[in-house]
Specification:
Elements lengths: L17 E3 L10 E7 L3 H12 L8 E8 L5 H11 L4 E6 L4 H11 L4 E3 L6 E2 L3 H11 L5 E9 L6 E2 L13 E4 L14 E4 H7 L9 H14 L5 E13 L16 H19 L8 H20 L9 H16 L3 H5 L8 H9 L6 E2 L2 E8 L4 E9 L5 E5 L2 E2 L4 E9 L2 E12 L4 E5 L2 E7 L15 H9 L3 H7 L2 E5 L8 H12 L5 E5 L6 H8 L3 E3 L3 H8 L1 E6 L4 H4 L2 H4 L7 E4 L10 H4 L6 E4 L2 H8 L12 E3 L5 H9 L8 E4 L28 H10 L2 H9 L3 E4 L18 E3 L7 H7 E6 L4 H7 L4 E3 L4 H5 L2
Parallel strand pairs: 2-3, 2-5, 3-4, 7-11, 13-20, 21-22, 21-24, 22-23, 24-25, 25-26, 26-27, 28-29, 28-31, 29-30, 31-32
Antiparallel strand pairs: 1-4, 5-10, 6-11, 7-8, 7-10, 9-11, 12-14, 13-14, 14-18, 15-16, 15-19, 17-18, 19-20
C-alpha cells in the first residue's frame, strides 16, 4: 500500500481471537466504542467505570476492545469485563501492530451507526453519549460530531479547560462548515463520532504507518474531504476527559523508528495537502486543511522548544530527510494563511521559520525589536531575525555611528539544523537610537510584554494584601530594603548560594544579605545556629517582605519553584536582578531550558563554557552582558579542603551518577521534590549501576588498597537508594547527611556518567572514570 495516498479499508478475516457478545449490523446499536489497548492496565478501571456510568442505555452502545499485544494486565482486566458484560463488550486480541491497526480491526467489527475511538487512558463524562445522541437527533444530516476535550490532571484529578481547541466549543452545541469557518480545525479521533455508513462508503481506515496526533489528523481530514461539505458538529455539553499527555516525541526516541517524524510529514501532512489540492479549483489545498496542517506543525515547534535537556543526536541522513519533508509541506502552504494563523499561539520565531526558514531567498525583519532594558546600566536590548547572510548593520545615535556595548549572533535551530539567525544588540539608551539594515532605516518597535510582569492583585488573600501594604512601610524598608536574597534548593543548602552568602557575611557585612531555606531542611539548624535570623523560612511572611524589597536575588538553581514560587506570583512585581550561580559547569546545550529565564547575571567557570553561552552562533540568548567568567563560589572551599588531604589519605571511591528525567518526573508545583517511577527497580539505570556497585572485582580491588566505596546519587534520585539493594561494603551517602565537598576532597577517584560534578573533581585534580551505558537515552533527558 502506498504511503502517499489516502488509505482505504482492506477487509480482514475475523480470526479466532474475537470473543464476546458481538452484535450484528441489523441491531439497534447506535454507538460503537472502538478502543485500542496496549499496556493500559493503570487506567482501564477508570475507563470502564466511566462507560458503565453513562446515562444512555447500554443497549444502545457496544465496546470493541482491541488488545494490541499488551504485556501487562490489560487483557486480564478486559477479559473480566467481557465476562461480566458479554452483551456490551467484544474483546479482540492481536499481535502488536500499533494503534492504527487495532482501530482498523475494531472498525471491521463495529455494528453501531456511529463509531468513536475513545482512548482507554481517558474517561467519559456520565452524559457523554446522551448528549451526543441528543445532538445527532437534532442534526440528522450530521456525519462527523466532536465532544469537548477537558484536560485532567492525573495527580490531583482536577479538570482544566485548557485544550488548545476549546474555542471550537465557545458558542455551545453547533455545526460548523469549515469551508466558511476554516479556523475550526479538529484532529482528535478519540473524541469524535463518525457516521459508520459514511466510513464504509469512503472505505477509510487509519494509516498503518502514522502514529499519534498526525494519525488522528490524517483520518479526520480525509473523512471531511470526502463529504459534500466539510461539516463538524461540536457538542460542548459532551465532555471527554483526557489525561495530560505529550502529543508526540520529537526527535524520535523510545523505540520509534528514527524516520517516524519524516513519515508523519510525508505520508500524513504532505499527502493531505496534495490530496486537498486535487479537490480545489485553484490547485491549492482548502484554507481549513492548511489551517489544520499548520496546527499540527506548531506542535513540532512546541516539542522541540520544550526539550529541557541535551538534544538527542541524530544521523545527518535523518536530519536531511526530515527537513526536505518539512520544506515540501511548507511549500504547499499559502503565506497569507501562515501569517494569519490564530488557531493556537505561534511564537514569532515559529511563524518566521514557516514563512522564511525553508526558502532560498535571504530575508530579515523590517524592524528591530526593543526586547529588554537595563535601567541601572542605561542599556536597551534590540534584536532582529534574518536568514542567509547577515544584512549590513549600522547603529546610530544623534546621527553618528555607535558600536553596540554587547552583541552576538544567535543560531535558531530546529530539529538539529540552524534555519535562522537572531542578531542581539545591547546599546546605550541615553539618546534616541536608529537601526539601519541593508542600507534602509529601520523602525525600532517595542516587543510584546516581557518575562517579568506585574502581579494580578485580584487573587490575593487578605493576608497577602496586608503583606503587600506592609512591604511599603518605612520600618520594613529600613530592615529589608536593598536586600540580597540567596538560596540553593528550597530544602537544601551546601551549594553556591550558601557559599556566596558566607562570603558576603564575612567580607561584605555592609550588604543586606539573607539566606532562604525550608525549615524542614537538614541544613536548617546548622545555618540558623551560625547565622541566626539572617536565615529566613521559605514561604514565610518575612520571606515575602524581603522579596518585595529585594535588589539582588541569587541562586544555584533556576527552576520555576525558585524563581517563580506560587507564594510570590501574585504578590510582588519582580524588581530584583537575578544572578544564576549555577549548580555546576554546563557541558551540554541547555538553551531550550534556560533561554526563557529572566537571568541578569549568568555565572560561568571556563573559557569554553562562557563561549558556548555568550559567543556567536550559539543557541543561547545570553551575551557578554549577562555571562561572566567568575568560577563557582563553592570552588574556593573545595580547593582548600582538597589541598589539606594528601594522596595517602584519599580513601574513597566516589560513585556519583546523575539523574534521568524519565525516572524522576516533574516536581510538584512550588517544590523541588520529585516522584520516582514505580518501575525504577527494574530500569536499565538501576540494573546497570547495581552491577557496578555489587561487582566482586571492584570490591576486592578496593579492599586490597584500603578504599571505601561510596554511592552518592543526584539529589533527585536520593529516594531510590533503598531500592538499589546496596551490598554491605558500599556506603550510602547523601547530600543531606554528608559534607559533599569533604567527600570529593577524600576521593581517590570519581565514577560518574554525565554529571557536571566531574568538573568539581577535575578542579581538584582527582581522576574520573565514566560509565555511560545509555548515552542516547541520557542525551534525551
Amino acid at each position: 500500500m502506498s504511503t502517499g495516498s489516502a488509505v482505504r479499508i482492506q477487509k480482514q478475516e475475523p480470526g479466532p481471537s474475537v470473543s464476546g457478545g458481538h452484535i450484528d449490523s441489523h441491531s439497534g446499536v447506535q454507538f460503537t466504542i472502538v478502543t485500542a489497548v496496549r499496556d493500559g492496565a493503570r487506567h482501564i478501571g477508570d475507563f470502564i467505570a466511566s462507560i458503565e456510568a453513562q446515562t444512555l442505555s447500554s443497549e444502545r452502545m457496544e465496546v470493541i476492545a482491541v488488545d494490541d499485544g499488551s504485556s501487562d494486565d490489560s487483557h486480564l482486566l478486559l477479559a473480566a469485563w467481557r465476562e461480566r458484560r458479554p452483551e456490551l463488550v467484544t474483546l479482540v486480541r492481536q499481535k502488536r501492530g500499533g494503534r492504527s491497526a487495532a482501530r482498523n480491526r475494531g472498525m471491521d467489527l463495529a455494528a453501531g451507526r456511529w463509531i468513536t475511538f475513545a482512548d482507554p487512558a481517558d474517561q467519559l463524562s456520565p452524559t457523554y453519549f446522551a448528549e451526543v445522541a441528543m445532538f445527532v437527533a437534532e442534526h440528522p444530516s450530521a456525519k462527523c460530531v466532536a465532544g469537548r476535550v477537558v484536560v485532567v490532571d492525573e495527580r490531583t484529578g482536577a479538570l482544566d479547560d485548557s485544550h488548545p481547541l476549546r474555542r471550537n466549543f465557545a458558542e455551545g452545541n453547533v455545526v460548523r462548515d469549515l469551508g466558511r469557518d476554516p479556523t475550526y480545525v479538529h484532529d482528535h479521533a478519540a473524541s469524535t463520532f463518525f457516521s459508520a455508513t459514511e466510513l464504509r462508503r469512503q472505505r477509510l481506515e487509519f494509516h498503518p504507518t502514522l502514529r499519534g496526533a498526525v494519525a488522528d489528523a490524517h483520518f479526520c481530514a480525509h473523512f471531511l474531504l470526502d463529504l459534500d461539505r466539510p461539516e463538524i458538529g461540536f457538542v460542548a455539553t459532551a465532555s471527554y476527559l483526557a489525561g495530560r499527555r505529550t502529543r508526540r516525541s520529537l526527535p524520535s526516541k523510545d523505540g520509534d523508528p528514527p524516520d517516524r517524524d519524516t513519515i508523519a510529514l510525508r505520508a500524513g501532512l504532505l499527502e493531505l495537502l496534495l490530496e486537498g489540492a486535487t479537490r480545489s479549483v485553484n490547485g491549492r489545498a482548502h484554507t481549513w486543511l492548511q489551517q489544520l496542517v499548520i496546527y499540527e506543525l506548531s506542535w513540532y515547534f512546541s516539542e522541540d522548544d520544550a526539550q529541557s535537556g541535551p538534544q538527542v543526536e541524530m544521523t545527518e541522513s535523518v536530519v536531511d530527510d526530515f527537513h526536505r519533508a518539512m520544506g515540501d509541506v511548507i511549500g504547499q502552504l499559502d503565506g497569507d494563511t501562515v501569517a494569519g494563523f490564530k488557531v493556537r499561539r505561534l511564537r514569532p520565531a515559529w511563524r518566521d521559520l514557516l514563512l522564511h526558514g525553508y526558502t532560498p531567498e535571504a530575508w530579515h525583519q523590517d524592524s528591530g525589536l526593543v526586547s529588554g532594558r537595563d535601567a541601572d546600566q542605561r542599556l536597551v536590548r534590540i534584536s532582529y531575525r534574518y536568514t542567509g547572510d547577515p544584512p549590513a548593520e549600522r547603529l546610530s545615535m544623534d546621527g553618528r555611528k555607535v558600536p553596540p556595548v554587547h552583541s552576538k549572533v544567535r543560531d535558531i535551530s530546529f530539529f538539529g539544523r540552524v534555519l535562522m539567525s537572531e542578531r542581539i544588540l545591547w546599546a546605550s539608551s541615553r539618546h534616541t537610537l536608529r537601526l539601519h539594515l541593508g542600507g534602509r532605516d529601520m523602525e525600532v518597535q517595542p516587543s510584546p510584554p516581557g518575562r517579568r510582569t506585574a502581579p494580578r492583585r485580584g487573587g490575593l488573600s487578605l493576608g497577602d494584601r496586608l503583606i503587600a501594604r506592609l512591604a511599603r512601610n518605612r520600618l520594613v524598608r529600613r530592615l529589608c530594603g536593598n536586600a540580597w536574597i540567596l538560596m540553593d534548593r528550597i530544602a537544601d543548602a551546601q551549594d553556591n548560594g550558601e557559599h556566596l552568602f558566607r562570603f558576603l557575611r564575612s567580607v561584605h557585612p555592609e550588604i543586606n544579605a539573607w539566606f532562604v531555606l525550608d525549615p524542614s531542611s537538614h541544613d536548617w539548624q546548622r545555618m540558623r545556629r551560625e547565622f541566626g535570623l539572617r536565615v529566613v523560612p521559605h514561604g514565610s511572611r518575612r520571606w515575602k517582605l524581603l522579596m518585595a524589597n529585594c535588589r539582588h536575588f541569587a541562586s544555584s538553581h533556576v527552576d520555576v519553584a525558585v524563581i517563580h514560587p506560587p507564594g510570590l506570583v501574585r504578590l510582588a512585581t519582580p524588581k530584583w536582578k537575578f544572578t544564576f550561580l549555577q549548580h555546576g559547569v554546563i557541558q551540554s546545550d541547555l538553551s531550550h531550558w534556560l533561554n526563557p529565564k529572566a537571568i541578569d547575571v549568568f555565572v560561568t567557570s571556563t573559557p569554553d563554557e562562557i563561549a558556548s553561552i555568550a559567543g556567536d552562533h550559539t543557541t543561547y540568548v545570553f551575551t557578554t552582558k549577562e555571562a561572566k567568567l567568575t568560577g563557582l563560589p563553592r570552588f574556593d572551599r573545595l580547593l582548600e579542603l582538597a589541598r589539606a588531604i594528601p594522596v595517602e589519605q584519599r580513601d574513597l571511591v566516589l560513585i556519583a551518577p546523575t539523574w534521568r528525567a524519565k525516572l524522576a518526573p516533574m516536581a510538584r508545583p512550588g517544590s523541588h521534590q520529585r516522584t520516582i517511577v514505580q518501575t525504577f527497580r527494574t530500569s536499565d539505570f538501576a540494573r546497570s549501576w547495581r552491577s557496578v556497585l555489587a561487582s566482586s572485582d571492584l570490591a576486592a580491588a578496593c579492599r586490597d588498597r584500603g578504599l571505601t566505596i561510596g554511592f552518592l546519587p543526584h539529589p533527585n534520585l536520593q529516594p531510590t537508594v533503598p531500592q538499589m539493594n546496596l551490598p554491605d561494603h558500599v556506603r550510602a551517602l547523601s547530600f543531606a547527611e554528608n559534607d559533599v565537598q569533604e567527600l570529593f576532597a577524600r576521593a581517590a577517584v570519581l565514577v560518574t556518567d554525565y554529571s557536571s560534578v566531574a568538573f568539581d573533581a577535575a578542579y581538584i585534580d582527582r581522576p574520573i572514570v565514566y560509565f555511560q551505558f545509555d548515552r542516547e537515552l541520557a542525551l534525551g533527558g
